[in-house]
Amino acid sequence: MSDAASLIQELQRLEAEAIETLAHAADTAAVEAVRIDFLGRKDGRVSRVLRGMGRLDPADRPEVGAAANRVKAALETALTARLAELAAGEAGPGVDLTLPGRSSWEGGRHPVTRVMDEMWNVFRDMGFSRARGPEAETDWYNFEALNTPLDHPAADEQDTLYLEHSHLLRSHTSPVQIRTLEQYAPPIRILAPGWVYRRDTYDATHTPAFLQVEGLVVDEGVSFVDFKATLAEFARRMWGEGTQIRFRPSFFPFTEPSAEVDVKRVIELPDGSSRETDWLEIMGAGMVDPAVLDAAGVDSERYTGFAFGMGPARIAMLKYGVTDLRTFFESDMRFLEQFVPEAAR
Ligand code: DAH
Questions:
Q1: Which ligand 1 atom is the nearest neighbour of the CA of 174?
Q2: Which atom of ligand 1 is nearest to the CA of 173?
Q3: Cβ 106 vs Cβ 179: under 8 Å
Q4: Is 343 exposed, middle or buried (0-12, 13-18, 19+ CB in 10 A)?
Q5: CA distance 86 to 27
Q6: C-alpha–C-alpha distance, residues 265 and 274, integer Å
Q7: Residue 233: its pLDDT value, please?
Q8: Among 227, 252, 314, which is best to mutate for testing ligand 1, by the most ligand atoms less than 8 A from CB?
Q9: Would you say the CB of residue 252 lies under 6 angstroms from ligand 1?
Q10: Which residues pair with 168 in a beta bridge?
Q11: Which atom of ligand 1 is nearest to the CA of 255?
């Protein structure tokens, strides 16, 4: 065998031996000892073999040099891998320290929840309490006690989801008015947020389940002036001092007179100027019909009141410029992430 061939063979034998030794190296100090023994600059075993190159025909030297470089690189890789294995072992079984780190999501309130919380903060400061009622209701609470006969279109099976035993999924939060009036004596000032259900097709402006926020005020001497002033104050606290409010005549069976309430807001623009929005509808409202008080066993000669119902998802759409209601329900992180962090609104 030529000198060159025997040197290359010797290098390969060293590589095999080093890898075998490494497999048994029990800690980082043992790994370091293998490195020095085989790859040490002056006295390492690979270096010692290479000293034999001096005897070689110059033409044979490049081949041996290339083989030596390959062996050194293989040993470096094996040393690093063994160190990683040992580190993983220290971290505990099954822990792979070479995996990329896991990032965590920063949580935030859902945009509709945020609007409902803002509404609640305003009414709480005005002395309102929270009220709630069941989502599975009866005809009586959902319609009849609210002065809505069962042959009214709203009570039709086309619109309302009926359950067994003459129950239904409430189609609005107004039945909470009746339940509250039955349970508590006036003065009453409540806000009742909750889910309601209708047989609507799922599209950009309808979802079969949605949230409403109901309000009710009943006391002696509550007048139309109190009604308008309370809602105007709500609008200013919710959307800012410059907010205007307007009442358009409307009809609801449970209020008389009834109104649809619109707001016109002032928006500050990035360049420091401001502009007014269009009139935007924010709620249905009205003075409580005496028939509703009577149905709930409240003396309608003595007490009067007003009521209102809002759709917070609609208001969130206006506030955040969302054009498709369905995006609120689909838990798509690309959509929801836009509302995190909360400070960025
Ligand atoms: N319940 C009505 C609806 O779902 C909204 C509503 C209108 C509630 C007028 C009220 C009210 O309390 O006074 O469309």
A1: 1
A2: 1
A3: no
A4: exposed
A5: 7
A6: 10
A7: 97
A8: 252
A9: yes
A10: 137, 162
A11: 13
Rounded to 5 degrees, φ, ψ at 252 are: -135, 140
Domains belonging to the chain, first-starting first, are 3-89 (no CATH), 111-344 (3.30.930.10)
308 CA distance to ligand 1 middle (Å): 6
Q: Is 284 in the pocket of ligand 1 (CB under 6 A)?
A: yes
Which helix (H) or strand (E) segment holds residue 248: the answer is: strand 244-252
Q: What is the mean pLDDT of residues 175-184?
A: 98
Q: Is 289 in the pocket of ligand 1 (CB under 6 A)?
A: no
- Cα 72 from chain centroid (whole Å): 53
Token readout for 207 is 């979802």
| Opening angle at CA 290, ends 287 and 293, nearest 5 | 100
Q: Which amino acid, one-letter code, is at 303?
A: Y
How many Å lie between the centroid of ligand 1 and the Cα of residue 252?
7
Q: Is 286 in the pocket of ligand 1 (CB under 6 A)?
A: yes
CB count in 10 Å sphere of residue 118 = 16
SS3 253: coil
Atom of ligand 1 nearest to the CA of 172: 4
Phi and psi at 167, nearest 5°, equal -100, 165
Residue 283 CB burial class (10 angstroms; 0-12, 13-18, ≥19): buried
Half-sphere exposure at residue 175, Cβ-oriented, CA atoms within 13 angstroms:
20
Report the atom number in ligand 1 closest to the C-alpha of 309: 8
Band of residue 299 on the pLDDT scale cut at 50, 70, 90: very high
| pLDDT single digits (tens) 225-236 | 999 999 999 999
Tokens of 343: 């400070």
